[in-house]
Amino acid sequence: MLLHILARGRIARSPEGELLDRYLKRITWPVKHSELPDKGGTLPPLGAQTRRVLLDERGRQFSSEEFAALLGRWRDEGVREARFEIGAADGHGDSARDEADVLIAFGAMTWPHLMARAMLAEQLYRATAILAGHPYHRAG
């Protein structure tokens, strides 16, 4: 299953970009990072076996184990792509939220978009490590 991070805005060369790249390189599943302009641009069409996940302040807060279980279930069901969308500064519109399969929040606080990308990449790495039985995730 392809893990696809689709984000508005450019991360360019920055500490956050380096952190994003560090975690993307660790993920053993197919992974892709795409950027769109802050406004406009067209989203790639969703395939029949694609799950759309929006990072949104109104979303559900998953534990790392719950997030891993969700990805594992989608993988086992034959989902081809899990697309994780990070909106621009104003977030996502109501129609995008309504069309999404899942809304995820990283807590009640607002996070900078560049940090959210790096945090998402780390959680994707952690989830795939959990599913592989890798010791990276040390649950208490």
Number of domains: 1
CATH superfamily: SPOUT methyltransferase, trefoil knot domain
Q: What portion of the residues fall into strands of 2 or more residues? A: 15-25%
Give the distance, in angstroms, between the N- and C-terminal Cα atoms: 29 Å
The CATH first-level class comes to: Alpha Beta
Q: Can you walk through the features of this model?
A:
The protein has helices spanning 15-26, 64-76, 94-99, 113-132, and strands at 2-8, 31-36, 50-60, 81-86, 102-104. With 140 residues, it is α/β, with parallel strands linked by helices. The chain has a single domain, classed as Alpha/beta knot, CATH 3.40.1280.10. It has a five-stranded parallel sheet with strand order 2-1-4-3-5. α1 (15-26) packs parallel to α4 (113-132) and α2 (64-76) crosses α4. The longest helix has 20 residues, at 113-132. 23% of the residues are buried.
What's the quick description here?
The chain is of the alpha/beta class and 140 residues long.
Secondary structure: elements and pairs:
Layout: E1 2-8, H1 15-26, E2 31-36, E3 50-60, H2 64-76, E4 81-86, H3 94-99, E5 102-104, H4 113-132
Parallel strand pairs: 1-2, 1-4, 3-4, 3-5
Helix pairs in contact: 1-4, 2-4
